[in-house]
UniProtKB/TrEMBL annotation:
InterPro entries: Polyketide_cyclase/dehydratase, START-like_dom_sf. This is Polyketide cyclase. CDD domains: PYR_PYL_RCAR_like (cd07821). SUPFAM superfamilies: Bet v1-like. Pfam families: Polyketide_cyc2. It comes from the Bacteria.
Length: 144
C-alpha cells in the first residue's frame, strides 16, 4: 500500500477554512483546476454514501463516494472505484486542524492506495499535483 500526504498552513481560523472545504460537494468551488461537481446519486450534502461527479477537462468522468464525515474533527474520507487512474483501494482524507497560536489552520490531504509498479509514478504524480494545486489555491484564497 502506498501513502501520499500533502499539507499546508492556511492563514485563517480552522472554523472559516472548514466552512469552505467541509462541504464534500464544494471541492470544485475552491480547487483552481477542478470543475464544479454534480450529484451522482440522490444523497446530497455530507451524507455518507453521497457521490460527487467531476467531468474533467481531459474527458475523464470521476465518481467519488463519501465514506466518512466528521464535522467536529473537521475531516472527511472518500474513495473512487478501483481501476480509476490505475488505483485500487483509493481512500483519501481531507482534514483541517487549528494552529491556535497563529489563528491559522493546518490542512492535510492524504491518500492510501494500491497500484501496480508500472503505473505508480504517473498516477502518483497526478494525484500529488491535484492535492498540491488545491492546497495552494486554498492558501491563496485566505491570504491576507
Amino acid at each position: 500500500m502506498a501513502v501520499l500526504t500533502v499539507s499546508t498552513v492556511v492563514e485563517a481560523p480552522a472554523e472559516r477554512v472548514w466552512e469552505l472545504v467541509g462541504d464534500f460537494h464544494a471541492l470544485g468551488d475552491w480547487h483552481p483546476h477542478l470543475p464544479p461537481s454534480r450529484l451522482g446519486n440522490g444523497l446530497a450534502g455530507n451524507a455518507i454514501g453521497s457521490v460527487r461527479v467531476f467531468e474533467l477537462p481531459d474527458g475523464v468522468v470521476l465518481h467519488e463516494t463519501l465514506l466518512a464525515y466528521d464535522d467536529e474533527a473537521r475531516s472527511y474520507t472518500y474513495s473512487f472505484p478501483d481501476g480509476t487512474f490505475h488505483f485500487d483501494g483509493y481512500r483519501a482524507t481531507l482534514r483541517v486542524t487549528p494552529v491556535t497560536e497563529l489563528a491559522a489552520s493546518f490542512v492535510e490531504w492524504s491518500v492510501r492506495y494500491d497500484i501496480e509498479a508500472e503505473h505508480r509514478k504517473d498516477s502518483t504524480e497526478r494525484v500529488h499535483g491535484v492535492f498540491t494545486t488545491g492546497l495552494a489555491g486554498l492558501r491563496e484564497r485566505f491570504a491576507s
